[in-house]
Design a protein that fits this description.
Distance between the termini: 136 Å
Largest sheet: 4 strands, mixed
Shape: elongated
Order of helices and strands: HHEHEHHHEHHEHEHHEHHHHHHEEH
Number of strands: 8
Oligomer: single chain
Amino acid sequence: MSPVNSDPSNQASSGGGMPLTRKELRARERFLATQNQDIVEVPDFVPEEVTVPAPVAAAAVLPAPISAARRFSAPEAPEAPAAAPQAASVPAAVPETVPEPVQHVDVRQGDAGRQGDAAVAELHGDAEPRHDVHGYADVHLDGHADVHYDDHAYLEHHEHDEHGYDEHGYVEHDEHAAHEYDSHHGYEAYEGHGHEVLDSPAAAKAPSKKVRHRRRVVALLITLGVFVAAISIGAQFLRPILGMDRLSDYPGPGTGSVTVTVPAGSGPKAIAGELEEKHVVANADTFLKAFIAAGGELSPGDFQFRTEMTNADAVAVLQNQDASKVIYFALSAGLRINESLEAISKGSGIPVQQLKALSDAPAQFGAPAKAKNLEGFLAPGEYRFPLGTAGKDIMQKLVSTTLDELKAQGITDPAKQFDTVIIASIVQAEGGQADYGNVAGAIYNRLKPGNSETNGLIQSDAAVTYGLGTKSFNFTEEQRLDKANPYNTYAIAGLPVGPIGSPGKSAIDAAAKPTANEYLYWVTINLDTKETKFSKTLAEHNVYVAQYNAWCAANAGRCV
């Protein structure tokens, strides 16, 4: 802070001492020096000096201060300079010290100040004083003395030195930084401190901590709400995709009647999907878990369900746990007609004679005209019918299953359907399932016209024994040559008069689409494994027949 001038002339005009900053002293001294004005001697009052802190750097040499009265009084018209003033000697140097302030002094805008500034402005040729900066300049030494300037006071800044001086020695002022004095501008001091209140937007009070906290909480709640809403909306779209909106089970017990056929070799997963598709169960996955947990095995056949059953009830149907509530029977592939009728009678309670009478009139069920009965047309599998189902309805179901399979293989002509069932019944009896295609191919090779190797004879042992009414693999030479047996394929060329049993789906498919080969002979050499050997010549075939006889010798009582 600059020393405080105690010029009596200034006191006379303003009524008290007015402090001058170092900036003001330097500006006035430069002004007077360039105008050849007399320099007022430094007042006698010299306050105590105090060492300036390191960061504050003072000028090495300062001119002597001028009186405050000179600063604020209106100057007269300048006279021509006569000679260098004798009293204008400038001290060699001013110590880099400032007086320790004794009191807190405020520089306020008053009449004297306005008069002084007017004088300076008049010398510049301006009607009113202009200033470089806005705001206040505070200089704090030892935390005590504050010097405040209003919105039109001078502020120390490095830009002042860059402006330079004009021909009169004035400090140049930026027009954009100049402001006219307003009679309404004044000072507002903080109570008990004398600090002026800043009347500018920068002094606007920042939001309180409580307001900032409330704003953060509101922003957090809004973000959380948007996040929850996004999750809810996304879940609505994902539920159908992920299957989250599917029922896991129906409450049961269900209504109506739905028939589901389980083909031989079908797995539980495929049946579970069909049950869901037909609305028997609500969810194929949960039904499959219930079926596996029950430890049951899937058996082929027709099963009667209700719509919207519980998983447990549907599992019970597939495992035949409700046999007392339905008609149930199972037909194995290869059974002859009398064996099939006995199984149906046992499961349904319908007398065999009644069932036989139905079988002996096959045309009513859609069988080909060549058929003498329903032999070969009663499809193997497990069947369930509601209690009280009529015998005719049961027989119709079995015949329709076989006819549907023939049509599925492209066999639609009734006469061809009949021949295909005959070949399929021989394939079912003669070979293992893995060899059905080759057996069927060999049979068709034997039936080809001009075949000099077998002359159209199929030579099936299973066909001969069927005609004999036995199931023995042994028959006499006389029986082999007996043409009275219409199923004797050793004595009669071509197909036998009818099927020799009930072929399964695989055998029918093989007969409808046989494997192309050049075989004419086949023999099963192991009745346990159904291993079958194929050959093109009789000599090769006889070698395999010897292997069959050796197996029969090693397994007494099996080849009877």
